[in-house]
Write a structure and sequence with these properties.
Order of helices and strands: HHH
Helix content: over 70%
Number of helices: 3
Shape: globular
Distance between the termini: 33 Å
Radius of gyration: 12 Å
Number of domains: 1
Structural class: mainly alpha
């Protein structure tokens, strides 16, 4: 995906994850959480033998959301 699509995708995923987890943050934090969450979600899915992020679709959104929620949980646990 292009950089602009990653930023848009990251913003959507980060915003959704922050709503699910009840964490506040700005647009920049949502973008970072979404992009890192997409990478983490892709790694988690590949660990289980499934495909990771395949493009701008619902499956990829759910994989990235899983990763972003895991990322927020990990950051909270470390703090």
């Amino acid at each position: 995906m292009s950089i602009l699509i990653w930023v848009i995708f990251g913003a959507l995923v980060g915003w959704a994850a922050s709503m699910v987890m009840g964490s506040g943050g700005g647009i920049a934090q949502d973008i970072i959480v979404g992009i890192v969450g997409a990478v983490l979600g892709g790694w988690i899915m590949s660990f289980f033998g499934e495909t990771g992020i395949t493009g701008f679709n619902l499956y990829s959104f759910l994989v990235a959301l899983l990763g972003a929620i895991a990322l927020i949980a990990i950051v909270r646990a470390v703090r």
